[in-house]
Amino acid sequence: MTPRDASEPNGSRWSDLDRPPLNVTALRRGLVRPGGLWSEVDVVQRTGSTNSDLVARAAKGEVTEGAVLVAEEQTAGRGRLDRQWTAPPRSGLFFSVLLTPSEVPVARWGWLPLLTGVAVATGLSRAAGVDTALKWPNDLLVTVGGAERKAGGILAERAGDDGVVIGVGINVSLKADELPVPTAGSLGLAGAVSTDRDPLLRGVLRSLEDWYGKWRAAGGDPGPSGLQEAYAAGCATLGRVVRAELPGDRSVVGEAVAVDGDGRLVLATEEGMQEPVGAGDIVHLRPA
Question: What share of the chain has pLDDT > 90, as a percent?
């Protein structure tokens, strides 16, 4: 799909006063600058998956590090474990970025989804005035009516030998009757002071640029970069009893006590063992 300015006549910025299209010209002006991370910003009206599109463009050599692809609507957005992610047009932020951290050992690239979570939570806290929390490894939680709800997710995919495409989906203005499942939420339902997606997207991408720069400067080490500490401070999973549903139909129940240097969630089981979990689905069983 050819990138298109969301403010073109057939995507009139005022076609939906509650959900105006993104202003790609203003986004480029605010984000793409000499010496900065973001090299280009494209907005498409509708696509299957921004992650799939950006991975394909990277494979063809059409984009370089810092490319940002945003969709006003995704028809085949994916979360972890190939779960579907759908939302009404212009009701959220659905975007992917290409990163090529060549100076960071590949073994540390697993921190990128966690880094993105910290960056997104930080950016939204400032721009939307909403308290957010992170559910390991890649969910963004908000509080709606006293209950934790998922308002966003992150998906990282390799792009060739030297790149990673990270996709982010955030429910911004979804109303209660538009939620895909009862456990979902949105920034609007959580009392955001603003649901204007232009400043929200700029805030998130600037925060991501800042955290990525710190992490990259530290050679990907989550300690000196401050990333490990920041993630632990914002992680709603730590201190809770959880069930980790692991590959091979195995599950482990224990208290989430730490996120280790490899970004794994460490569970203390009833048998007195500490088991690091590197991949799996986490279910919060009891509040912290």
Answer: 85
